[in-house]
Amino acid sequence: MRFPSHGTPRDEVLARMRERKEADARWHEGRTFSLVYPAGPEVDEVLADAAGLYLYENALNPFRFPSLRRMEEDVVAMTADLLHAPEGFGGAMTSGGTESILLAVKVARDRARAERGVTRPRLLAPVSAHPAFAKAAAYLQLEHDQIPLGDDLRADVDAAADLLTDDTALLVGSAPGYPHGMLDPIADLAGLAAERGVAFHVDCCVGGFLLPFVERLGYELPPFDFRVPGVTSMSADVHKYGYALKGASVVLHRRRDWWFEHQVFLYDRWPGGLYGSGAMAGARPAAPIAAAWAVMTFLGEPGYLELTARLLDATRRFREGIDAIPGLHVLGDPVASVLAFGSDTLDVMAVGDVMDDRGWHLDRQHGPDALHLMVSPAHDAVVDTFLADLRDAVAHHGESRGIEARYS
């Protein structure tokens, strides 16, 4: 497409956009299991109204837009409260989990240089850790070491101990991990890091606005946040189970001076005066900040507890239904709403193809091959339809390969 030589009427522009959008995933129908986390029409309206108030503002300059500064401070503080950050913490909002992770890795790298004289820093993360850690290692020039998983699909602590070196700048655990929904042994890993003076990051991008409410509903979880003494930083995405607009995430550091000295960027050696930013981006959209503040304030603890209860009930129904289908099984023992399922006898990718044909969008995984679900509250209305289609997909797959499949 060449740059337009003339303008196009507004109605025609929007009509062309709507036509193109027809090919997009229909997330509002509950047939996608990641990327979008619908919490219902009331939340959608709050998000739209809040974003509409801040479509044009720029979060780069908090002195010109003090309302944005206040809302960002509130979002960071509320997130820190959920995750039991101590007095004197530091942190900021970012565009998403990848930026939060990049910043956590940068702070750990710079701390390792300044405090321990590390010149060839290494990053040690489980095989199941989000690719953002590999990306951070590549961008920030750290060697990337991977911890194998145990039979329970969690980071192997003994292997982590063997891989930890004096050059390790950061050790990582996930709460939970994206591929299988497993909670890594955070306390054990953080203990290893603390013994060697190594920073330890909990990737709570998925769980930051989920696990605290799972606990408050009475479910027992191993410690995963700043209550663990060795945890030095955490990331939590408001645009996942915080139900905010993309992109809104929070990165937190146990100590404010780590954040200010190694994350905040200040520069005055140019004619434009003092330039400062607390995260990677300079100019930042205001709408995600406003929407994050609005949805957290609108829902409060009662709203999040209600959504989490719905979410956990839907996840239970998915798990029980999948495990009841001959040939399929859920991998490991996921702690909340993220899970993967595979098979020892069926080509699960072929099953996924049949589900695609029926309008479902399931992510593919390998090592082992699996199909991935990331359940949202809106999925509680489609569990039965999904399971019926999945049973038929397995039957279709089995018939095509001469495998007998029977259902009770």
Give me the secondary-structure topology:
Elements: H1 10-21, H2 41-53, H3 66-82, E1 90-94, H4 97-116, E2 122-126, H5 131-140, E3 143-147, H6 157-163, E4 168-174, H7 186-195, E5 199-203, H8 211-216, E6 233-237, E7 249-253, H9 256-262, E8 265-267, E9 275-277, H10 287-323, E10 329-330, E11 338-342, H11 348-357, E12 363-365, E13 370-374, H12 383-400
Parallel strand pairs: 2-3, 2-4, 4-5, 5-6
Antiparallel strand pairs: 1-7, 6-7, 8-9, 10-11, 11-13, 12-13
Helix pairs in contact: 2-10, 3-10, 4-5, 10-12, 11-12
Instruction: Estimate what percentage of residues fall within beta strands.
Output: 5-15%
Rg calc? 23 Å
Give a quick account of the main beta sheet: strands, pairing sense, barrel closure: 7 strands, mixed
CATH superfamily of the largest domain: Type I PLP-dependent aspartate aminotransferase-like (Major domain)
Per CATH, the architecture of the largest domain is 3-Layer(aba) Sandwich
Q: Oligomeric state of the chains?
A: single chain
Query: Total strand count, please?
Result: 13
Determine the structural class based on helices, strands and strand pairing.
alpha/beta
**CATH topology descriptor of the largest domain:** Aspartate Aminotransferase, domain 2
Total tally of structural domains: 2
Quickly name the level 1 CATH class of the largest domain. Answer: Alpha Beta
State the distance separating the first and last CA atoms: 55 Å
Q: How do the SSEs run, as a string of H and E? A: HHHEHEHEHEHEHEEHEEHEEHEEH
Uncertain regions: pLDDT < 50 for 5+ in a row?
401-408
Name the overall outline: globular
Average pLDDT works out at 94
Strand order of the largest sheet: 1-7-6-5-4-2-3
Helix count equals 12
- Helix proportion: 40-55%
